[in-house]
Structure formats: C-alpha cells, structure tokens
Write a structure and sequence with these properties.
2 strands, mainly alpha, two-stranded antiparallel ribbon
C-alpha cells in the first residue's frame, strides 16, 4: 500500500514527473513510465512470496521459477522489441516492448508464487493485488482521456478512483481475513 501511495503522483502527473526529473527531451515517455511503475509494484508484491520459499528451503522451486521467467522474458523480448531479428518477425515496440515483457514475466511469476504459497503454506488467494493493479491501470488510462490542459480534473478523477478502490480493497481484505 505504501509503495502504491508513493507511485500515485507519478501516475497522476507522468508528464510533469518526466519533465522535472529527466527534462523535456523525454516528453512522450509517459506510457513507458507508467508501465515501469506497474512492473515495479508487481515486483515489490512478488518479493515476500519468493522470500517465504527461500526461507522454507524450497530453493529448487525458486530456481526453476527464475529460469522459467528468464526464458519467458527472452522469448517475449525477441517477439516484442525488434521488427526483425534473425528472420523472426517482431512487433517493433522497442523500450515499451521490454517493459511489457518484464511486466508479463513478473505477472506470471507472481501468479505462480501465489499458487505455490497456497499449495505449500495454505496462504489463501487475495483479490487485493488485482484491485491495486486495476487502479494503476485505470490511472494510466485517465491520463490519455485528460491531457495536459486538465490537470485539476485529472487529479480529482485519479484521487476519486484511488480512494474508492482503496475502500473496496479494504472490504475485500477484511473478507479474506474472516475466511
């Protein structure tokens, strides 16, 4: 939750964050920033599951997960990043393709860790992480509908979305704790 609150201003004001940190020369990289933030949040959420498996001496599962993730990342990178590589046609997405490959790989690893945690430690599935990712995806979409000229409207819509989703996620989490 804390990481999502820290990332919230970057989602609401990606153009301004890029201009302040790296300059106007990188204008247009808003989508890249937002995808990277979703990847970072998902990576942060995945870390405790990986740590639990290490602590319980299930190192083989962690190693297999890491190797599988590497294979998925390399395969997605070859397909998403270049337009043509060694005769393999790609989508030519460049940097966005790399972040998408990382995001997809991390999401699959996260889902696998959730399954392993449920299987070995009876940790129930929670829908909270889906809600947070939905919120940040929604914030990214809001930036496309409300451009630079609607900063206050963008701020208001983003905060309403975030507060509403946080409230709903608290209800879902309470239900998960009760069951």
């Amino acid at each position: 939750f804390v990481a999502s609150c820290v990332c919230l201003p970057l989602f609401i004001f990606p153009q301004e964050a890029i201009a302040l940190t790296v300059g106007e020369g990188y204008a247009g990289a808003e989508l890249l920033l937002q995808l990277f933030l979703v990847y970072s949040l998902l990576s942060i959420v995945t870390t405790p599951y990986r740590t639990v498996l290490y602590a319980s001496e299930k190192n083989t599962l962690n190693t297999l997960t890491a190797v599988g993730g590497l294979v998925i990342f390399l395969g997605l990178s070859v397909w998403l990043v270049p337009t043509n590589l060694f005769g393999i046609s790609g989508l030519g997405l460049g940097a966005v393709g790399i972040i998408l490959a990382q995001l997809i790989k991390t999401a699959l690893i996260f889902f696998l860790y959730k399954i392993l945690s449920w299987k070995f430690f009876s940790i129930p599935f929670s829908l909270g992480w889906v809600g947070y990712l939905t919120v940040f995806s929604g914030l990214a979409v809001l930036n496309f509908f409300f451009g630079d000229e609607a900063v206050l409207l963008r701020l208001f819509a983003s905060l309403v979305l975030f507060v509403g989703a946080a409230f709903l996620l608290r209800l879902v989490t309470r239900e998960d704790i009760k069951s």
